[in-house]
Description:
The structure is a single chain. The chain is of the alpha+beta class and about 325 residues long. It contains 9 helices and 13 strands. Strands 1, 2, 3, 4, 5, 6, 8, 12 and 13 form a 9-stranded mixed beta sheet that branches. Strands 7-9-10-11 form a 4-stranded antiparallel beta sheet. The two termini are about 30 Å apart. One of its GO terms (molecular function) is acyltransferase activity, transferring groups other than amino-acyl groups.
Amino acid sequence: MVDTNEDSSIIYRSIKQDEHDQALNLWYSVFEEAKPGCFERDFTNEGSPTREEDDTIGAWHNGKLVSAIHIRRVQLQSRDENNVKYLCGGMSNVATLPDYRNQGISRNLLRMGIKQMEKENKFDLSILGTGICKHYSVLGWEQMNVPTVMIIEWKNFDKIIDNTQWYATSEIIHREKQLLLDIYTKSPREYQFDRSSSTFLEHFVGWNWQLEKDIIYIYRENQLGYIVIGKAEDIDNIYISEWRAPNVDVEQKLFSVAVQEIQRRQKQQTNNIRVHGLPQHMTLNEFEQWAGKINIEYENDMMIRNVQLPHEIFEKMKFAYSNGSATFWQGDMF
Length: 334
């Protein structure tokens, strides 16, 4: 370990454009399992269309970048009557080289990030995901217990739609990205991350879909909806990753065709269907009566921090995430 407490040679400042490669090298060395191209998107207009130069902050010791954080600017779309959008600072890529850990360096960077969001007077809240919540709770982030996965013992075998056509997301994201964006925007969850523009949908969300070789079905009868199956070629880990529907009827049809496709690929080895997220238009009781017994899995590594929201709105957001009516999909941010 390099003891930096005995000197004052740590320099904290924003990372400049010509220093992006140093940040990328740091992140890839710390997050060894990250896929190629994961962090580069933070520095592109396609992957981060609202980014600003000072959104990446670093700490240098003797001219070497030893720690860095990145603030991802994302709009949080609400489903209220005014369709209000809130600017969220997604705190991401928090990384410190092993020899420089446990000396408060990244925490100092996080404090700088908080001050930067407060000073700009544009940010409403901050969200992050982490396995070390204590590191962030002392700085005001609050841990939440969020329902993230449903395991359904599927019993509804009524075939609703014949001749369904599934597409690789790598194909559809280029051909019909504006349609997908329209469906996502017009049939929102209570809170969800805004994916505008279509280039962001293609380059950021699409990158995650393509990475897992996801497939997608678009419902086009009178009303529009879509559903995505993740890891479609991995029959042991295949799951429903995302869907958007305008009402209960379309949501049920989307689930039915997705389950049919999963069971076709699995050759009906099991009736247990894994779903990322909770129903959009049904209560859990209503969904269970229609589909089958449900087991819910929770994650407690999501954290949220108020920056300048009124207390009642901030509490409403926390409640929406805790009951599953709002969605936190890592493909939107990390």
